[in-house]
Amino acid sequence: MFRAAPPSYDDQSPSTGKSRKERERASVPPCPDLSFIDKMSQDELEFYESNPEAVDDMILETAEAQSILTMSRDLLQKNEELATKILSKEEEAEAVQKKAHEKWAEMSLERDKLAGLLREQDELISRFDKTRIAEALAKEASELETGGDAMKRSFASLVGGGVKNATDIETFKRDFLQKRKEFHAVEARKEKLERV
């Protein structure tokens, strides 16, 4: 059965953007030099044996322990500086993110306005579409022409059946002139639109 090896110190350290070989390795600190214990009297040895806290203090006073304490203080200070720097970047990132959200909201409003303007433009184009207007005018002209044919038949029946009175002729004449005027107006608009 395959078993994965436990992670090494390098696998757990945060990435610095360097390869493993380039990264500085943390070495095991040297053991304190306790050779001075050989020179202690029996009373001193018994004192340290009965007082474990005194042994800790004695070890902490060695040069090696002091070196490690100094290194620890330096590392703590560096960590604090990095934490402060990271927090300041976090505030900066939040400000940038807030600004991006505001810009996005502005863009959304502008996009909605633009969509409304495009709808209005489409409506105007549709309403003033040259082809559609020409077709509407052609239809109107055709209806007027059909009305003219009906008027022609009416005139034929009026003349053929004998004119009954002058009012019939005046009414017919007035209707005829009105229809003729409407027809020519529609034709003129249609021709003007076709020239544009």
Automatic annotation (TrEMBL):
From the record, what ranges are coiled-coil?
Answer: 72-99
Assigned keywords, A-Z: Coiled coil, Endosome, Protein transport, Transport
Q: Where in the cell is it found?
A: Endosome
Q: Where is the VPS37 C-terminal domain?
A: 111-196
Q: What InterPro entries does this protein map onto?
A: Mod_r
Q: Name one GO cellular component term.
A: ESCRT I complex
From the UniProt entry, list the residue stretches annotated as the region Disordered.
1-36
A GO BP entry: protein targeting to vacuole
**PANTHER family assigned:** VACUOLAR PROTEIN SORTING-ASSOCIATED PROTEIN 37, VACUOLAR PROTEIN SORTING-ASSOCIATED PROTEIN 37A
Query: What family does the Swiss-Prot or TrEMBL record give for this protein?
Result: Belongs to the VPS37 family.
Q: What is this protein called?
A: VPS37 C-terminal domain-containing protein
UniProt lineage: Eukaryota, Sar, Alveolata, Colpodellida, Chromeraceae
